[in-house]
UniProtKB/TrEMBL annotation:
CC annotations in GO: plasma membrane
InterPro entries for the chain: Kinase-like_dom_sf, Prot_kinase_dom, Protein_kinase_ATP_BS, Ser-Thr/Tyr_kinase_cat_dom, Ser/Thr_kinase_AS
Record family assignment: Belongs to the protein kinase superfamily. Ser/Thr protein kinase family.
Keywords: ATP-binding, Cell membrane, Kinase, Membrane, Nucleotide-binding, Phosphoprotein, Plant defense, Serine/threonine-protein kinase, Transferase
Example GO BP: innate immune response
Organism: Brachypodium distachyon (Purple false brome)
MF GO annotations: ATP binding; protein serine/threonine kinase activity
Region listing for Disordered, in residue ranges: 11-57
EC number annotated for this UniProt entry: 2.7.11.1
Binding site for ATP: 110
Cleaved signal peptide residues: none
Name this polypeptide is given: non-specific serine/threonine protein kinase
PROSITE patterns tied to this protein: PROTEIN_KINASE_ATP (PS00107), PROTEIN_KINASE_DOM (PS50011), PROTEIN_KINASE_ST (PS00108)
Catalytic activity: L-threonyl-[protein] + ATP = O-phospho-L-threonyl-[protein] + ADP + H(+); L-seryl-[protein] + ATP = O-phospho-L-seryl-[protein] + ADP + H(+)
Length: 308
């Protein structure tokens, strides 16, 4: 199956404490439901190590691992979505901390902003993907709510927030990440990506690897989050999938941005950008810096005259 759902328009980036630079996500592409023949796995890639992805929407929404919650339950868990429970806000909507009695667990609840630019498709892809993908370095989706026009996602709560918070928005109560911790986070994120690329069949292209999507648990254990843009990768002798360019400015591989041809390597490029941020402590894009230093990759790349 080809999961070619995507988000809508530009993402508005608002954080509880500090606004981040606006990220760019292009307009909605229509979901493509491929013919049944394309759902087969050519090339006989049926390694027992691989997690098979044959998501059927009806099956996942009714029988998948994700639980279904009512809006009332989630409102009760977050004190009616009170500002005190707000953890942050991204393109999808606001994220609240809450406690769910039914699962006796602290959770993070992401509420789709109905006036926002991203929507139902990302919600659906997120539920489908995370119901099927399970790994210690991928965030755990506990469930969702699709009451009326409400769309909410319920995740395990990641107590240390995002890597971006630690690298770029350090508050006085946060200690600076030491080198070993940085490398542990980089290695864990790579394992999550490896699972998507090499252990899942067909492979999954994540398309949204960035510091704000690497969430941190106890001991700075990293987990990749936000699979709303994920797409099933090429199968058989195909080298890429063609799709509208989506992702976040600063993390998007140039060849994908130029051609719309998405490969697993597009994620590897984004991973490289994250690694540069981890090593340098600089943002991928920082418009407050001097001209020539605003784009981290351009700043760090040797001048073309020095490239053999
Ligand atoms: N499971 C979680 N546990 C704890 N905090 C979370 C969790 N999920 C999200 N957050 C917090 O909410 C913030 C907003 O997350 P969200 O994914 O909505 O936006 P983003 O990653 O900043 O941007 P984008 O929409 O582009 O992914 C994160 O930066 C993080 O601080
Ligand atoms: Mg995110």
């Amino acid at each position: 199956m080809d999961c070619c759902f995507s988000c809508l328009g530009e993402k508005k980036k608002k954080k509880k404490k500090k606004k981040k630079p606006q990220m760019v996500k292009p307009p909605l592409e229509k979901p493509q439901i491929p013919p049944a023949a394309e759902k087969a796995k050519p090339g006989g890639s049926s390694s027992s190590r691989q997690e098979s992805l044959e998501p059927k929407e009806e099956m996942v929404l009714s029988n998948g691992a994700a639980q279904i919650f009512t809006f009332r339950e989630l409102a009760a868990a977050t004190n009616n979505f009170s500002a005190d429970c707000l953890l942050g806000e991204g393109g999808f909507g606001r994220v609240y901390k809450g406690y769910l009695d039914s699962v006796s667990q602290v959770v993070a609840i992401k509420q789709l902003d109905r006036n926002g630019l991203q929507g139902n498709r990302e919600f659906l892809v997120e539920v489908l993907m995370l119901s099927l993908l399970h790994h210690p370095n991928l965030v755990n989706l506990i469930g969702y709510c699709a009451d009326g026009d409400q769309r909410l996602l319920v995740y395990e709560y990641m107590p240390l927030g995002s890597l971006e918070d630690h690298l770029h928005d350090p508050s006085p109560d946060k200690t600076r990440l030491d080198w070993n911790t940085r490398m542990t986070i980089a290695a864990g994120a790579a394992k999550g990506l490896e699972h998507l690329h090499d252990k899942t069949n067909p492979p999954v292209i994540y398309r949204d690897l960035k510091c704000s999507n690497i969430l941190l648990g106890e001991g700075y254990h990293p987990k990749l989050s936000d699979f709303g843009l994920a797409k099933l990768g090429p199968v058989g002798d195909k080298t890429h999938v063609s799709t509208r360019v989506m992702g976040t400015y600063g993390y998007c591989a140039p060849e994908y941005a130029m051609t719309g041809q998405l490969t697993l390597k597009s994620d590897v490029y984004s991973y490289g950008v994250v690694l540069l941020e981890i090593i340098t402590g600089r943002r991928a894009i920082d418009v407050t810096r001097a001209a020539g230093e605003q784009n981290l990759v351009a700043w760090i790349s040797p001048p073309s005259s020095e490239v053999a």
